[in-house]
Structure of peptidyl-tRNA hydrolase:
Amino acid sequence: MKQVIVVNEALGLPPGKMAAQVAHAAVGGLLNAPRDKQAGWLQAGMPKVVLRCGSQDELFALAEQAQAAGLPVMLIRDAGRTVVEAGTPTCVGIGPDEISRIDAVTGSLKLMR
Amino acid sequence: MKQVIVVNEALGLPPGKMAAQVAHAAVGGLLNAPRDKQAGWLQAGMPKVVLRCGSQDELFALAEQAQAAGLPVMLIRDAGRTVVEAGTPTCVGIGPDEISRIDAVTGSLKLMR
């Protein structure tokens, strides 16, 4: 079991801002998941991986693929008071779910640096 | 209601690593909180603020103050496979709890950039 959070790197979010957005996705993804996936992930130590994609189109495409695959999905839009325009999608939480099921959608993405 | 996550800035964590640690603290803090605080925070839209402190000693002192004040506290130690030594404390989640109760502990800290 794991959870991945994919960030749109093209936004160039400052690190503190990005961390808050990733945390929104992690918490929201957990709350969106069915009870058995929540429990399995907690027992596994709640592993999380932060990945990156290169555009908003790519972010939307990943969210759609994950949804179609039946994975828990949590797309985060920024409130937009400071860094980016209001409503800008910043990242998407995928999972918690089985590692192989998540890798089928995000397996080609690189780690966020 | 809000939750803050305080990061030890002195570690110089790479942004992606920091985001994962902050997400651990956010999820762990939520799970550590009593049911009524969980519910109040969810209803408020789960506001999160990422702050910074300058040393491990300061991080520990904040965690202790928050614990003494009866706030939900989640100290995160890195598994340490890559960037920092195993077991290094990276950040602490404080809350969810009432804004004034959290500000009494973290009110003087600056936003993580």
Notes: The first strand of chain A starts at residue 2 and ends at 8. The interface with chain B takes residues 5, 7, 14-28, 30-31, 42, 46, 48-50, 52, 111-113 of chain A (CB under 8 Å). Chain A has a mean pLDDT of 96. Chain A has one domain: 2-111.
